[in-house]
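Hi L.,

You mentioned the student needs an example of a multi-chain input paired with its predicted structure. This one should do, with 647 residues in total across all chains.
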Amino acid sequence: MSLLSYLINGISLGSVYAIIALGYTMVYGIAKMLNFAHGDVIMVGGYLIFTFVSTLNLPVGLGILLAIVLCTMLGITIEAIAYRPLRNAASSLAVLITAIGVSYFLQNVALIIFGANTKAFTSVVSAEPLKLFDGQITISGETIVTIISCIIIMTALTLFVNKTKAGQAMLAVSEDKGAAQLMGINVNGTISLTFAIGSGLAAIAGLLLCSAYPSLTPYTGSMPGIKAFVAAVFGGIGSIPGALIGGIVLGIIEILSKAYISSQLADAIVFLVLILVLLIKPTGILGRKIQEKV
Amino acid sequence: MKNRNIPKKLQDNLITIGIVVVCYILVMILSATGLLSNLLQGLLVPLCAYIILAVSLNLTVGILGELSLGHAGFMCVGAFTSAFFSKCMENTITFAPVRFFLALLIGGLCAALIGFLIGMPVLRLKGDYLAIVTLAFGEIIKNIMNVLFIGRDSHGFHFSMKDSLSLGLEEGGDVIINGAQGITGTPKDSNFTIGVILIVLTLLIVLNLINSRDGRAIMSIRDNLIASESIGIHITKYKLMAFTISAALAGIAGVLYSHNLNSLMATPKNFGYNMSIMILVFVVLGGIGNIRGSVIAAVILTLLPELLRGLNDYRMLIYSIVLIVMMLYNWAPNMIALRKKAANRFGRKKEVA
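Structure written out for the whole complex:
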């Protein structure tokens, strides 16, 4: 029975990772860059919701909506200021180091505004816990909401990418930027849209993460962010179903190693998975192999 | 042409080492006249360690052209293995310089070994993946150090990953590595003079490597992997060589750092991701690939926030802005074009790179 409840917790954590991983995988697929600051947008989303709901006492729905809108704008701004000028830079290290700089910048701005103390995040989820097997297993409301939101987001995003014009434009840009531009696709606009979607999802991920683990610090986002990147690599970078599979598998691995091996070594085990995946199958489970041309 | 180039490089290297020596003499004079505050004196040995770290990271980032975010991990390996050795040998080898020399060897070799083992599989990956794997590696090392317990009694060494009680030590045995509390009571064998000697040694090793046949091979891999492979350069060998040397030097910096502290703990602040980023900031500000720049940037960025105490809260914020602005200024194609235009307008003949 305890194994079953661990598995459910793992799927719940994995759903959050999957939502974060979507942001990584879409940006990586299209802009070919590792957006290190993605994890910190989650943290910003968490703080925004905390400010709106707990400090300003706004209605929950409005607070969440505002946080999503602000995070989306933040994502577009970061891309326009820090990443776009470097898109054609001679060295690929340049944009990676800039992304690390942005990540650090967000953390330290949050540190100066909100201080280093942990903020207790009051859960905004008001769903009743579900009891199974005569109360032997209790599934918390947060877990249910997390898993359901993950399913909704995945379905919506898959439909968006495959059925809409903007989604097709994204696929085209990720395939070949130059050719897409020749076909009349606005490449800059499409990349901005990708960052916007990724950052909006990060705000939702921040909400779900902080509801499940109700403590908020300026560093809340960085570890889940890196782990979600591991999930994106595991599932195959650039693939939306891959992000889901990678996220869930990683969430289960983390919860099980916390439960059965050591809570302090859980992070180390997750990273070990990354190293193993990259050594055995660098393209991930659903990734495509890209032939390198001279 | 060739004959004129070599003395120029030698001259360049001598200037770099000269700067270090002059700074050393200056600090010695200041401290003899009592002008150096206690705070600054306490900062001298860590500063030496930072300089060595920055120079060694520049070997990976600037010369090999790969981004490593786990440099603090190698430092951590060097620090813990050497502190462990010194603590064990404290009563066996009583002559501190010999003990410290052996500790340096052990710390450097262990870090090099780990660097070699990590590098072998990981260097097949490129760019972003390499960065994230080295980051992961740094976190793994830090986490392991936080749960490792090693004790010693008359039966020998005892290991545990749980707590100090499960070591099962008999009466009189002592715990050497105490999990998250780390190692306490490492003999204080390092000092500023040793630190400066190590900096000069590091500079000699790195600068000589860069100007050697091997160094040129490494730089050719950075500039064009396929072209250098086609002229018969052994890619894996040279990548591993640069990565291992860089790791070994980071290990030596760790030895220097740990033998200056009474208690050595693996916290996120000293051996985590933050430390790796701080070193990266030194390298970026000093100029990627410019060894002398790394030395100067490490000194300025360590001393400046300490001298301007009010800035201390904003230190990390300033670091992050430095990273972004330097990268945009140096690498954005529009910025490069703008700088060229400005240079032409003001009639400068010098080509802006």
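You could point out the following to them. Chain B touches chain A through 47 residues (CB under 8 Å). The longest strand of chain B covers residues 149-153.

Best wishes,
N.
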